[in-house]
Amino acid sequence: MIRRHQCFCETFSEDHRLRQYLMSQKTDLIVLDHLLQECMGGLASLLNAPIVQYSNWPIADGYVTSMNIPANPSSTPKTATPYSSLGMSFFQRVANVLFHWNIIIARFLQRIWLLETFQRSNLPEVDLIASEAQRIIYAGRSEFLFEVIRPINNRVKHFASNIQLRPSDFVTVIPESCGSETRDGCLCNRISCVLSAEHKLNTSSQLHSTSDYLYSHDFIRHVPEPVKRESLYKNLDRKLVKKRFDTVSMAFPQLHWPSLTNEKFILATFGSLAKAEYIPLDIARKIISAFSRSPYKVIWQTNSPLDSLGWIRNVTIPQNVVLTRWAPVKEMLAHPNLQYLICHGGINTINEVLLFGVPFIGVYLQGDQGSNVRRLADLGAAVMVSVHQISQEELLPIMRKFERNLERMGGAPSKTEPPVVVTSKIPLFCLKKIGPRHILVAGGGGESKTGVLNLMQSYLLTFENKTMPKAPTPMMARLVNTIETDVYATMNMDVVCCSSPEKGRYLIAAGHGQTTGYDVGRDDADKEVLKYKIRSVGRLTTSEKVESFQFSIGKLSESIARNASSRGATEGRREDRRAQYSYGHKCVRFDRSTAGKRVVTGGEDGHIRVWNTRALVEDRNPETIHRPITDIQAHKSDVFDIDISPDGRIIISVGHDGIAKLWDMNLGTLIHEVPFPTECAKGYKVRSIRCTSLGTGSNLVFIAGYNPVSLSSKRVSFLALWVFNRERNAIRTIVVRSTGQGDGIASLCVSSCGNFTGMGSMGGSVFIYDTHEMKQLAAFKETHGIFVTAVEFLDRIAPDVLSLVPQPSPDKPRLAKGPGAIARASIISLSADQTIQVHHLPFEKRSTTSFLIKLFLLSIVLYYLVWCLYAMC
Questions:
Q1: Distance (Å, rounded) from C-alpha 23 to C-alpha 674?
Q2: Strands 338-343 and 775-780, sheet pairing
Q3: Is there a single domain that holds both residue 519 and residue 382?
Q4: Beta strands in 302-397 (DSSP E)
Q5: For residue 554, what pLDDT is reported?
Q6: Residue 743 · residue 776 · CB < 8 Å
Q7: Are residues 516 and 618 in the same domain?
Q8: In this structure, is residue 347 part of a structural domain?
Q9: Is residue 380, in this structure, part of any structural domain at all?
Q10: What's the 3-state SS for 539-594?
Q11: Quick one: 132 and 269 in the same domain?
Q12: Quick check: helix, strand or coil at residue 265?
């Protein structure tokens, strides 16, 4: 910056037109910017006119006085100082002092260079220190951001605002809940400005209340007061607001301004200097990845034409992210649905943030931005994020924590902390149980080179030392195993016990997944933990461009498998196999009636295929071409979901067209197409199906979830309990229930006993239903930040340790309790927000009132019975 100033000043001072201007023009007033202005200040002094030094920077801490320790201690924040005044250590104060010295040295060198330049150009010598002391300082609102110190070098200070419009002049939408009189909690997720203008102005006046200086107090009438969000929409001219709304809608059609009326959003902008076209590809991918997992729409003002973004060709822009070169920032800051701002912390943006009372996440990049954001973070109005933190994929957790803090700071009742047991650093798509006390999750970034790993991880469910109703401690999950899955992200998965539970042999089918065996290992604390050994034993490869399925098997304390997916020498043979099978798998399910000897896959070509897993496990030669036992042309496009009846005779499939069908497992023939209930006969499609263990004899009982074809806040989803009788080939509904408006079904599960149904919603909620009546037993609304990708019920018993439990009688075996025994039902959920949560349906509490009523009725019956017997005698 100094070098740029010097080059400009040298060119300017040697230009003959400057001398002509100095001799021919009479100047009445000079307005001068503030940052390292020795050159321009010296040239301006040659005009012999009053100088107003104007800037939006916080400039009351004049650089000349930096060494005046009593008036300007190191603890006082200044522009671009690395540390703020709250809780600074000795070394941080030293760092601030060194920064002050750098400014002084830079200005001293600038003055020497300027005098030499003026001498070479035959210009008059200027006393810069005396000239600066004579200037009028016209300071902007940013003076009130920080603690203002006593001015020593400047004779006159005038504090004012660079904008005469009020925040209400930018309102384009008035919330429906806000009438002419503002209601409490109208904007529950917004915070007011940290400090009112009146308080700050009074503070400034006290600091400057000496007779040595002249102050202008007219600014009190002109500085807009920082708005309190609940009063921003009071007594507005609705016609004028509608006119602004139409103007913005026409000027920025890419923002779909009318849709923002019913949609919460986040605004992201990193300033005019840090244009999006200069952002490295790796950082851009991680920013987009964090934005894609937000529950809100994210509008990113790039300050660059979209065709100039080189990284945009290598990044998939998610549906909830909108890129725009320009955005009406002030109108968006005044919008009631703006949740918060993500910005660079430039002083202009800081002024607007405080003026409109909007909280923000500051990603500081250069110059004064770090100190600006840091001071507001000290006041509780912002959170600091560095580029390094973004590169470490920490932006998304910071956004989620920030959103939870806003709920606590806002006027709405704050939510309880969600029961998170795992927070992952990678996107997870699958969750399954392995035995009663372990869970397996999988996901990753796929083949895109974003730096996001593709992993499978197993966790041991255990408890902390805190109380919980009906349980000694709340549940937690401990990571016990991590397996990398090459360049493939596991998108679907199933697990089955392929022997007795005590032998601990399980089989996993996944998109490039592996499987398991029990083992006892040690964690970081050198404590024994129960974990799985996961090894690959086989693979069904279908196509280079789609997922392939891997299988493996393990045994208690014994690793019996090796990776069978060899490369190199077998590559040519594998290419032949890919040519034969050009389909990709979308879903997978084991046949539990055969202990996993058969597995069913649903393909993106609409086919259902039944595979012999025993043949795959026993013949691990990668050159062997495995063919399906049964191949069914089930649907015209993708098979979206499948499940298998408990007896292994029927496959139920759901196609991308939203139609469910029943198929004969052995013959591969269509048994019945599942009709739509009358409640959702039109405009609906099947989202998911799950078989239950409630059927007896020839009856199959299953659950189907129905979503509207076009989800909206007014449409409802349905859960239906069906029964199919094989002997009569008849199907009918038992009960159909609505799940509520505006929150579609994302995932389904059924407990092993069949009495409970779990549902994860598109809005991040988790529900537990009574399967028999489809009655809602528990609702955990918006516990996740975004849609729930998987739900599973935890086991109430642990059959894998049955031999370790003392058995008093062989006729009545004593069972060991599993993690789910602490409640009527315990459900674990996985979401795209990268968290895993556990929710409990508590045991029913016996009512004292009902007991007393029953006792009263019983006493009446006994009274009349005794009275009648006495009368007969």
A1: 94
A2: unpaired
A3: no
A4: 321-324, 338-343, 360-363, 382-385
A5: 41
A6: no
A7: yes
A8: yes
A9: yes
A10: EECCCCCCCCEEEEECECCECCCCCCCCCHHHHHHHHHHHHHCCCCEEEEEECHHH
A11: no
A12: strand
Residues contacting residue 617 through CB under 8 Å, at least 6 positions apart = 507, 537, 538, 551, 553
Query: What would the pLDDT profile of 741-769 be if each residue is shown by its tens digit?
Result: 778 899 999 999 999 999 999 888 999 99
**Which among 97, 127, 161 is the end of a domain?**
161
Task: Give, as one character, the DSSP assignment of residue 471.
Answer: B
Which structural domain range is residue 299 located in? Answer: 241-410
Q: Are residues 270 and 151 in the same domain?
A: no
In a domain, 340, yes or no: yes
- Average pLDDT of the segment spanning 662-674: 94
What is the residue type of 338?
L
Final residue of a structural domain among 132, 161, 190: 161
Element (H, E) at 104: helix 90-120
Dihedral sign from CA coordinates of 44, 45, 51, 53: positive
Written as six digits, the tokens of 566 are 């060899």
252, 358: one domain: yes
Co-location of 383 and 523 in the same domain: no
Residue 70 lies in a domain: yes
Confidence band for 533, pLDDT divided at 50, 70 and 90: low
Average pLDDT across the chain, whole number? 75
The answer on 256 and 116 residing in a single domain is no
Lowest mean pLDDT among 53-62, 165-174, 245-254, 798-807: 53-62
pTM recorded for the entire structure: 0.54
The pLDDT value given to residue 417: 67
Nearby residues of 41 by Cβ (< 8 Å), 6 or more positions away: 32, 51, 128, 131, 132
**DSSP 8-state symbol, 120:** H
390 and 501 together in one domain? no
- Domains of the chain: total: 3
Beta-bridge mates of residue 31: 52
Domain CATH code at residue 361: 3.40.50.2000
| 539 contacts: CB under 8 Å, gap ≥ 6 | 512, 548, 549, 550, 551, 564, 565, 622
Burial class (CB in 10 A: 0-12, 13-18, 19+), 310: middle
